[in-house]
Amino acid sequence: MRKLNVDVAVIGAGTAGLAAYRAVKAHGQSAVIIEGGAYGTTCARVGCMPSKLLIAAADAAFDARHTAPFGVYVDGEVRVDGVAVMARVRRERDRFVGFVVNGVDAIPADDKLVGHARFIDNTVLEVGGHSEVHARRVVIATGSSPKVPASFRALGDRLIVNDDVFAWHDLPKRVAVFGPGVIGLELGQALSRLGVRVRLFGKGGAVGPLTDPAVRAAAAATFGAELDFDADARVLDMQKDGDEAVLRYLDHDGREITERFDYVLAATGREPNVHHLGLENTTLALEANGVPLFDKATLQCGASPVFIAGDANNVLPLLHEAADEGRTAGDNAARYPDVRPGHRRATIAVVFSDPQIAMVGQRHADLEEGSFVTGAVSFEDQGRSRVMLKNKGLMHVYADKATGRFLGAEWLGPRAENIAHTLAWAVQMGLTVDEMLAMPFYHPVVEEGVRTALRDAAAKLAG
Ligand SMILES: Cc1cc2nc3c(=O)[nH]c(=O)nc-3n(C[C@H](O)[C@H](O)[C@H](O)COP(=O)(O)OP(=O)(O)OC[C@H]3O[C@@H](n4cnc5c(N)ncnc54)[C@H](O)[C@@H]3O)c2cc1C
Ligand SMILES: NC(=O)c1ccc[n+]([C@@H]2O[C@H](COP(=O)([O-])OP(=O)(O)OC[C@H]3O[C@@H](n4cnc5c(N)ncnc54)[C@H](O)[C@@H]3O)[C@@H](O)[C@H]2O)c1
């Protein structure tokens, strides 16, 4: 067993781990970064980037099929070549992964260890059965994995998760998608637009990350009009039969349907990778889900020299948060015990469905009843949205009754990925609705719809 002594050991060479490693090195301390899987990060290999590549192909197919209302006709068939679609997805994905791997290659060999890490005590790690790392501090940046209900195991090799989709060399014909959360909506709609027969099964009425009941209902109606989607599905049975998954479920009218699919894609949520870390060998207090108790500002676990960043801590499992948190955890690991709160930005989340879903600032579910007003706009009659025939969606903006301050927004609608930034910046700057309305709005743009919602909120604040 090889023994290593370092200032900081970072577990996981994903986005958070790489940021943590760099932050430690910036302090001039020694560090080792330990990776048990493939280099390249979840985001680039099986997450953000390949999903957006698949969606880009799907949107191209959808747009090509929907030109007629403009008086523009694509004569002949719009043909989707599944092999070519997946070849581009994997080729471009590999390019993104390549950039990350180049960055890892540039890390000195002595600073890298390959193998699964387990805690022996708070600061001693056993790695891959070949090394023992004695660190003064540790950063846990182990990411998350799909959380698949146990009953799905009956599906055997017909059960897949997001990672499997991006390894395909062709598109299958029929996929049942479970979970209309962020991953299920993005991948389910994209596969459907690429000509795959998709049925999307939800639970309890949830749609994406939305918590505002009215916006959620609008989203369910919008996606339900395009996709075969039940936000509160009643599935009676699921079995594997040769190369097929056989599902028995009740449709919207309560009729029993038996349908065969090539695959069942489980997009039923993700869980932090903390279960095989040997945390029971540490003195850290753990939450029910196995994540150590930690301070959200400093990312320190109790008073220990252990820090936790990225999807592993289960706070905001998003790429930019993983990068920020990795930096904070690495910085504080190097400073320990003089730890400091890291930089937290206003929250922003975007789902790359069509229409896109976005949320900024405080969620509707987090607001105190009676303390805020809601301004609304429907995009149905919004000028620019109608011009582009992208006039679907509903936006709710929330403002504090006492101060007029803009608190946050939830919506689905056109160009939400861009508008979300403007609104998240307004949240971070602490602007009031009146201050936002004093800003420029060009004509004709989708942001004029945002102005309508803000004016609605301003009227309610005044009244
Ligand atoms: C399909 C999909 C689409 C997504 N799209 C978006 C998007 O559009 N925008 C967005 O902001 N976010 C998106 N995300 C979320 C984003 O990918 C994650 O929030 C981010 O990648 C988390 O980074 P991380 O560093 O915490 O984890 P990871 O990048 O997963 O890194 C963790 C690393 O730790 C390693 N590891 C785990 N346990 C051990 C161990 N015991 N020993 C050694 N190594 C270990 C793993 O092998 C892994 O390499 C998406 C996720 C998915 C799955
Ligand atoms: N665009 C993005 O930024 C992006 C894209 C993909 C993923 N992500 C990140 O990854 C995280 C995980 O995404 P996710 O979609 O796996 O999780 P999620 O928590 O967003 O959604 C899981 C969904 O599965 C449903 N569900 C659970 N069990 C079910 C069952 N048995 N049958 C039917 N439905 C069931 C839940 O009700 C929920 O709607 C997200 O929270 C997000 O942070 C971000």
TrEMBL record:
Which Gene Ontology molecular-function terms are recorded?
flavin adenine dinucleotide binding; NAD(P)H dehydrogenase (quinone) activity
Q: Which residues bind NAD(+)?
A: 179-186, 269
Which cofactor(s) are needed, names only?
FAD
Where's the FAD/NAD(P)-binding domain?
Answer: 7-326
| Record's cofactor remark | Binds 1 FAD per subunit.
Kindly indicate whether the keyword Flavoprotein belongs to this entry. yes
Locate the residues binding FAD. Answer: 52, 142-144, 311
Pyridine nucleotide-disulphide oxidoreductase dimerisation domain boundaries: 349-453
Task: Provide the alphabetized UniProt keywords.
Answer: FAD, Flavoprotein, NAD, Nucleotide-binding
Which superkingdom? Bacteria
Q: Which residues form the active site?
A: 443
Q: Cystine bridges: which residues?
A: 43-48
Family from the record: Belongs to the class-I pyridine nucleotide-disulfide oxidoreductase family.
| Protein name as annotated | Dihydrolipoamide dehydrogenase
Organism, scientific name: Crenobacter luteus
